[in-house]
Amino acid sequence: MEILQCAYMKFNSLKQNKLFTVLRNLVIAEVVFYLVFLALALSADWGEIYKDSFLEQHIRFEVIEFLLLGLAQVGLIFFIFARSLNEEKSVDEIISFGEHEKLEFKKSFRWDINRGQTNKDLEKAVMKTVAAFLNSNGGHLLIGVDDHGNLTGIENDIASLPKSNTDGFENHFNNVFNIAIGPEFRRFVGLKFDKVGKNTVCLVKVEPSRKPVYLKTGDSEDFYIRTGNATTPLKMSEVATYISSWWRDK
Q1: DSSP labels for 69-86?
Q2: Scanning 111, 206, 218, 221, which has the fewest C-beta atoms within 10 Å of its C-beta?
Q3: Is 198 left (phi over 0), alpha (psi -120 to 50) or beta?
Q4: For the chain, how many structural domains are there in total?
Q5: What is the rounded distance in angstroms from the CA atom of residue 158 to the CA atom of residue 173?
Q6: Are 153 and 106 within 8 A, CB to CB?
Q7: Beta bridge partner(s), residue 205
Q8: Structure confidence by residue, pLDDT tens digits, 68-81
Q9: What's the pLDDT tens digit per position in 10-62?
Q10: Residue 55 C-beta-side C-alpha neighbours within 13 Å
Q11: In a domain, 172, yes or no
């Protein structure tokens, strides 16, 4: 019961934050709009100019003025709502939704907390998910968060690198990516680092690839896709069918 109540309160908090963002942006836009409108109104006597027009014989200037003002207001409101809804979500907001088809959490990139050492299998697991997103509808991978949405941070990952900062983390990510997937696909993947409390997390944003992506492991190549909230390998007999249907429809 307490878990449901906590989730409900968090959901309401997120809705209030989103509403506040929309209202804030709308107020700012309205102020700018009226300042511009006032400047235009003072710069010329538009009523006198309108008298010499063809429309003046059929429609009063006040009607045109209020019509244009109303249309501009409606357009401004739609624009602000669209921009506000498309604003990037905070890490806390992303975590609150939990893992799904286009979002997966990874506790770390290379540091095995249980063993107290680096583990290349963890890097491979990250690349599996990235490859699956590339072969599907894209998605986000959040490194530094466990399966339950608890922050673990990537500080241990960073400390294990020769260059112990976020630049060093991204450089190592690039090296692993280029070997496992290929540098030609790197342009579909973006990395963003955020500080949440005392923890640093890495948000990997993956766009859909324009051609099939294979994960290279030694001498073998594997093909992964997203099925629900899971990363799923396809058998070679299934890959050809998936490729022909998936990219043919793009």
Answers
A1: HHHHHHHHHHHHHHHHHT
A2: 218
A3: alpha
A4: 2
A5: 11
A6: no
A7: 140, 190
A8: 777 777 777 777 66
A9: 444 444 455 666 677 677 777 777 777 666 665 656 656 556 666 666 666 66
A10: 11
A11: yes
